[in-house]
Design goal:
This protein is mostly beta strands and 245 residues long. Strand 6 and strand 7 form a beta hairpin.
């Protein structure tokens, strides 16, 4: 499996070197500040703010590659050694019909020198997933499948996450964001859970502001913060200020 991933990444690298010369390509940067970095409903920052930034290259053929980073706290809290998450991803997107879109790719979540495999009850936090998404109008359905152990869970290869949502324009600048998902942790039913979100995003032109209510039904013992014992999947309202350049 590792050889397959390396071969895929090598192909992506070769494609990128050619695609950068295409006239129908684009390069975009993004930056954000959020009151609480939530991923699949679980706080990654112990309920504290996070600073985030990323870059995306997109070719006219639908091929894309990108990287994104955020400050985190959960690995340090668990006894590991990483305060940054770095995501590297690549894929292709386009239309199957006039109304039906697709997006397939691979993403690796990196936590440099995280040392989680030296912590009792955990494994290396670095995780690779493949994913596929179908979109119809404002709605989407996405499936993600782990090729490795998932975020430090022992013996969790083949875990999966399925989510559905919709982004409904209310006027020219305001969008209603709806989401519901289910995280299945392989060989660890206690850690499997559902999450959901309802939010509003307003594009002011010079920046975008999002407010979202987020909640889960995760087990409070499985997702208790090692730092303070608080439930990391409790309901919250998250504010995010972002900008695409």
């Amino acid at each position: 499996m590792k050889k397959l991933i390396l071969s895929l990444l090598a192909g992506i690298s070769a494609s990128t070197s050619v695609a950068t010369f295409a006239a129908d390509s684009s390069l975009a940067f993004n930056a954000a500040v959020t009151s609480d970095y939530r991923y699949r409903g679980i706080t990654q920052t112990r309920f504290d703010p996070a600073v985030q930034a990323g870059v995306d290259y997109t070719h006219g053929s639908g091929f894309y590659v990108g990287a994104w980073a955020s400050t985190i706290k959960w690995i340090d809290d668990a006894g590991g050694n990483a305060d940054v998450e770095l995501d590297i991803y690549a894929g292709t997107r386009g239309n199957l019909t006039e109304a039906l879109t697709y997006d397939v790719g691979v993403i690796t979540y990196l936590y440099p020198d995280n040392k989680m495999d030296e912590v009792s009850g955990f494994d290396d936090a670095n995780t690779t997933e493949i994913y596929g998404q179908l979109g119809y109008g404002v709605a989407y359905l996405k499936y993600s499948h782990a090729l490795t152990n998932l975020f430090g869970f022992v013996d969790s290869e083949n875990s999966n996450y399925i989510d559905a949502g919709a982004n409904i324009a209310l006027n020219k600048t305001l969008t209603l964001n709806l989401h519901a998902g289910h995280q299945e942790i392989e060989n660890n039913s206690l850690a499997s859970y559902d999450d959901w979100k309802i939010g509003l995003t307003n594009d002011f032109g010079f920046c975008t502001l999002s407010l979202a209510y987020i909640d889960t039904n995760a087990d409070e013992v499985a997702y208790a913060s090692p730092a303070n014992g608080k439930f990391m999947g409790k309901e919250t309202v998250v504010a995010t200020l972002s900008k695409v350049f």
